[in-house]
Amino acid sequence: MTSRRAFLKRTGVAAGGIITGATLSTLAAHSASGAEIASHGRANRRRSDYGDVSPLADRDGNTVLALPEGFQYVTFSKTGETYAPGYAVPRNHDGMACFGASGNTVRLIRNHEMRNAAGDFTLGVNGPAQLRYDPKGMGGCMKLDFDTRAKRLVRQFVAIGGTIVNCAGGSSYRNAGWITCEEMTSGVAQGFDQPHGYAFHVPASANAAVAAAPLKAMGRFAHEAAVAAHSGLVYETEDSGNTSGFYRYTPKAPADLTSGRLQMLALRGVPDATLFKGQSVGARLPVRWVDVANPDPDLEGGATTCFQQGRKLGGAAFNRLEGIYRGEDGESIYFVSTSGGDKRSADGTGYGQLWHYLPAGRMRKEDELVLVFESPSGSVLESPDNLCITPNGGILFCEDDAIADADRHPLTAERTEINRLVGLGAKGEPFTFAVNLLNDTEFAGACFSPDGEILFVNIFGDGRPGSGMTAAVWGPWEHGPL
Fold first, then answer.
1. N or C: which end of the chain has fewer CB within 10 A?
2. What is the pLDDT, as a whole number, of residue 429?
3. Domains in the chain: how many in total?
4. Cβ neighbours of residue 371 closer than 8 Å, sequence gap 6 or more
5. Distance of CA 474 to CAs 58, 59, 255, 462, Å?
6. Can you say how many angstroms the Cα of residue 145 is from the centroid of all Cα atoms in its chain?
7. Which among 377, 372, 417, 418 has a CA at the least distance from the CA of 395?
């Protein structure tokens, strides 16, 4: 444990307590191994230093996860549990971040990807009505205070409400809070009172629900995630099939996201690039940015979408951009293309890509984009969604099995769709760190406590009471690359 804390001290974890980073020195290793795996069409057979995973009961005796030997975990904040008079934990646990609080207590901010019909609050985020963005919006975020010494939940409450389909997000400038993102652009035509498809800011320090205010200058589209670099620039992913863009938002003031300039990534010399296939792992692609003139289009009125605006100026197309994470340098950005890649399943879906955006600076004259890893098969990595850069510079993918391939796992033979936490170590080798044994829903929201000792992660759940939850995992991290 001492060596892990020493690592965090050496790498300079940002104030506010979010673990932010894979070292740039591991990029070459990740890329080299990814190229080798892709070229051979198979996984590197090197076993993870953590060893094989096996079923393990939590502290309440419930077997929810398979983990390597030596690890332990607790589960808490389960779908449908009463946490205050008249209030139940919402369904659909999704993206999440961990912030430092005081003493042994850390604060989690967790999304709930609610897709109920307008006005249906069944297991929704029932925050104060006067603070909701849309009276008929049942989504939002919860805050959870967790005692890392006692390994128990101390308190949970609504952070914001009145939004819909809060999928993922990322930390804001100087880790002041969580940027939560709506993945659907529904509006009045779908029965809501307000248009949706925006990002919202949730201050980490607030100890009660706050008013939800849409950040319209950051764009209206199928938002997945957003994260602020140390400079204050915010990077955003779009989850909209083969018409997904990667965006950069430059606020007029770093701490104020209400006004600024939205742009979309394009490749220099390759207008209208299609990046979800035909790419080489490790190749450095020069990048430029094109303006999105109207970031808040009237989609109900048939206005040109943000993606279409960027595409007309040469913007690049990805496939289903989802998880995003800030690199250790504070400016580079990792992001996931859930269904990208040349190797395709029977239904034509790619198994997933990991990209790394590198801005110009001392190390390079111009912005660059690198394909770090591309999965060759579902057995290696299938449908990566949320993304976490670990304290030791490893990468942890949350799988959201989106491929109808009836894959199975020896530990869950009765299930046909398996979801895992898949690690990518400093040498670039993929390995299974955890398996969801409870149900066939996704892992989401992986993040570490400020001291790097506890991994928090969500099981999304299928809507039934007890099917979704948050887990806190700890153990011999020093035995492996995470």
1. N
2. 84
3. 1
4. 31, 34, 275, 279, 280, 281, 282, 283, 353, 354, 355
5. 12, 12, 34, 26
6. 20
7. 372
Distance CA 88, CA 446 (A): 23
Q: Which of the 8 DSSP states describes residue 74?
A: E
Exposure pattern of 120-158 as b/e (b: 16+ CB <10 Å)?
A: eeebbbbbeeebbbbebbbbbbbbbbbbbeebebeebbb
DSSP assignment of 266-278, as one string?
EETTBTT-B-SSS
**What is the longest distance spanned by two Cα atoms in the chain?**
60
- The CA-based angle 319-320-321, given to 5 degrees, is 105
- The end-to-end CA distance of the chain, in Å, is 13
Q: Using CB atoms within 10 Å of the CB of residue 363, give its burial: 0 to 12 exposed, 13 to 18 middle, 19+ buried.
A: exposed
CA distance 28 to 436: 31
Instruction: Please enumerate in sequence order all residues whose Cβ is within 8 A of that of 185, keeping only pairs 6 or more positions apart, or say none.
Output: 195, 196, 197, 220, 221, 222, 299
**CATH code (residue 174):** 2.120.10.30
Cβ contacts of 78 within 8 Å, gap of 6 or more? 89, 465, 466, 467, 468, 469
Name the burial class of residue 347, with classes exposed (0-12), middle (13-18) and buried (19+) by CB atoms within 10 angstroms of its CB.
Answer: exposed
Of 451, 460, 454, give the one whose Cα is nearest residue 474: 454
- Nearest one of 187, 175, 182 to 197, comparing CA atoms: 182
> Residue 314: left (phi > 0), alpha (psi -120 to 50), or beta?
left
**How far apart, in whole angstroms, are the C-alpha atoms of residue 93 and residue 142?**
10
The size of the chain, in residues, is 482
Provide the pLDDT for residue 171. 97
d(CA 17, CA 106): 9
Given this model, what pLDDT does residue 404 score?
62
pLDDT given for residue 418 in this prediction? 87
Q: Can you give the residue range of the structural domain that contains 195? A: 2-479
Report the distance separating Cα 475 and Cα 482, nearest Å.
11
Rounded CA-CA distance 321/246 in Å is 8
The stretches in the chain having pLDDT less than 70 are: 1-48, 402-409, 413-416
Distance of CA 289 to the CA centre of its chain: 23
Alpha carbon distance 418, 440 (integer Å)? 6
CB 481 within 8 A of CB 394: yes
Predicted confidence at residue 23, as pLDDT, reads 38
